[in-house]
Amino acid sequence: MAEKCDIGLIGLAVMGQNLILNMADHGFTVAAYNRTTSRVDEFIAGPAQGKAIVGCHSLDEFVRNLTKPRIAMLMVKAGAPVKQTVEQLAPLLEPGDIIIDGGNSYFLDTEEQIRNLHEQGILYLGVGISGGEEGARHGPSIMPGGVAAAWPRVKPILQAIAAKVGPNNDIPCCDWVGPGGAGHYVKMVHNGIEYGDMQLICEAYSLLKDGLGLNNDELYDVFAGWNRGELDSYLIEITRDIFSVEDEKTGNALVDMILDKAGQKGTGKWTSQQALDLGVPTTLITEAVFVRSLSALKENRVEASKVLAGPGQQGEIDNFRITTDRAQFIEQVRQALYAAKICSYAQGFFQLQAAAVEYGWELDYGGIANLWRGGCIIRAVFLEHIKDAYEHDPGLENLLLDQYFCDAVNKSQTAWRKVVCTAAELGIPIPAICAALNYYDSYRSERLPHNLLQAQRDYFGSHTYERIDEEGFFHTDWKKLKR
Question: Is 423 exposed, middle or buried, given 0-12, 13-18 or 19+ CB atoms closer than 10 A?
């Protein structure tokens, strides 16, 4: 059955299987291959049964079943497994054939693959995909980048299976991002923002649970209410649901039975590392990465809790619970969460702008916001406002300068500051919310104390400094002039 399939997919883990089923549902015939071929047989006999899906037991068979120019999509683990698969697959392909890496690959690895395959004439795409198992099956957010010549060929397939938004539910959350590793870079920043969003929500939860003493039923109601307003998002929605689930073993709330050690796969860390390389202040995402690392030190924290004192902890918290207007504090936390969330996205898009300059990409920031409006983990109603902001001003320097977001943060500022002060008084850590406020205050400050820092650098290292009254770089012999 040579040249039968519209597209082929390699890697039959959960994401790969669901993407294939999604493609088949949209009228495409798909070749399926997995290195462990028993998984191919299980898939064909199970979820794929009766669908236009062809199981293949070798890469040769896989390639023979693809219509020319061939489209081969990889859903394998990033790093060495992607490289090895490409090395095995590429000799079987011809000029004009297309390889799509749909995993969470590092963007520079994608650019290296593009260069390596260029002489063979094979077109390589690095495509970020977000939405997890459900998104893959019913419509993910898809962020394609790489060799632009491949885009017209894969566009009908990828846009068909993507999530849809808009008044008529007909705008696909998939469109061309840019050349090279741009698609995977945008997915990396998406994941970094996801780290920030999740940490902010956890801090709001801690303030309401540990500070105010809300039980899980009350927390469910709070998050359900928030999800009907400007915080309406997938992550708020699933957080609401989590508070309703009981542990089958104990009958307790399942969330209370989970150990407080967070895992991570590295994409948030990549975002922070790139921010440092570019010299941009992606502080909230970086703080969220560090807090996951700190949470993993569970045994250390248990020992430290026996030695290190807080601010009269339980007595302070008991008094706070008795004297505080609960509804007012809940609203203050909501406003602080929203303001911090705005800062997180502002930092993420600012990093995308810096990357575009560094790597020579022309990114459509409103278009990127549209890609994230449906299907992905950070999908949220307020992404519509981000799309509008960049459509109104494509050269917008920072989201905080857009009128909608400027007004929103100004409206929330008093509550935001009160929440930070309250957390400090009670000894409840909210590092991401604090990082967002510090970023906001630093960004809005006409003058920061770094004139002193430059003086210090010049004193010990002759690094020079600039003056406020004339141009140029200057050095002072501080030791000679000091008293």
Answer: buried
Given this model, what pLDDT does residue 267 score?
79
Residue 449 has phi, psi (to 5 degrees) of -80, 20
Cα distance between residue 351 and residue 340, in whole Å: 17
The amino acid that residue 226 corresponds to is: W
Other Cβ atoms less than 10 A from the Cβ of 166: the count is 13
Per-residue model confidence (pLDDT) at position 367: 96
Contact in structure between 22 and 86 (CB atoms under 8 Å): no
pLDDT at 171 over 60: yes
> Is the dihedral angle over the CA atoms 236, 18, 67, 187 positive or is it negative?
positive
Phi-psi region of 310 (alpha: psi -120 to 50; beta: other; left: phi over 0): beta
For tokens 């099956």, the residue is 137
Token reading at 352: 């995308």
In this prediction, residue 314 carries a pLDDT of 79
Q: Which residues pair with 298 in a beta bridge?
A: none
Name the band, by pLDDT with cuts 50, 70 and 90, for residue 1: very low
HSE (CB half, 13 Å, CA atoms) of 49? 5
Name the average pLDDT for the chain.
95
Distance of CA 292 to the CA centre of its chain: 15
CB 398 within 8 A of CB 342: no
* Residue whose structure tokens are 């020079």: 464
Q: Distance between CA atoms of 3 and 68, rounded to whole angstroms?
A: 7
What Å distances lie between residue 276 and 282, 365, 451, CA to CA? 8, 21, 21
Instruction: Kindly give, in sequence order, each residue whose CB lies less than 8 Å from that of residue 28, ignoring residues fewer than 6 positions away.
Output: 6, 7, 52, 157, 160
What is the Cα–Cα distance from 76 to 78, expressed in whole angstroms?
A: 6
Cβ neighbours for 443, distance < 8 A, ≥ 6 positions apart: 281, 398, 400
Mean pLDDT for the stretch of residues 114-123: 96
Structure tokens at 234: 């997938």
DSSP class of residue 104? -
Which amino acid makes up residue 482?
K
Interacting residues of 354 by C-beta distance below 8 A, sequence separation 6+: 278, 279, 280
Mean pLDDT across 19-33: 97
Order the strands of the 123-130 sheet from edge to edge. Answer: 53-56, 30-33, 7-10, 71-74, 98-101, 123-130, 141-146, 178-179
Q: Which of 229, 208, 195, 240 is nearest to 344 (CA)?
A: 195
Query: Three-class SS of residue 292?
Result: helix
Predicted confidence band of residue 338 (pLDDT cuts 50, 70, 90): very high
**pTM as predicted:** 0.94
- Residues marked active site are found at 187, 194
Residue 28 has a pLDDT of 97
Q: CA-to-CA distance for 185 and 271, rounded, in angstroms?
A: 9
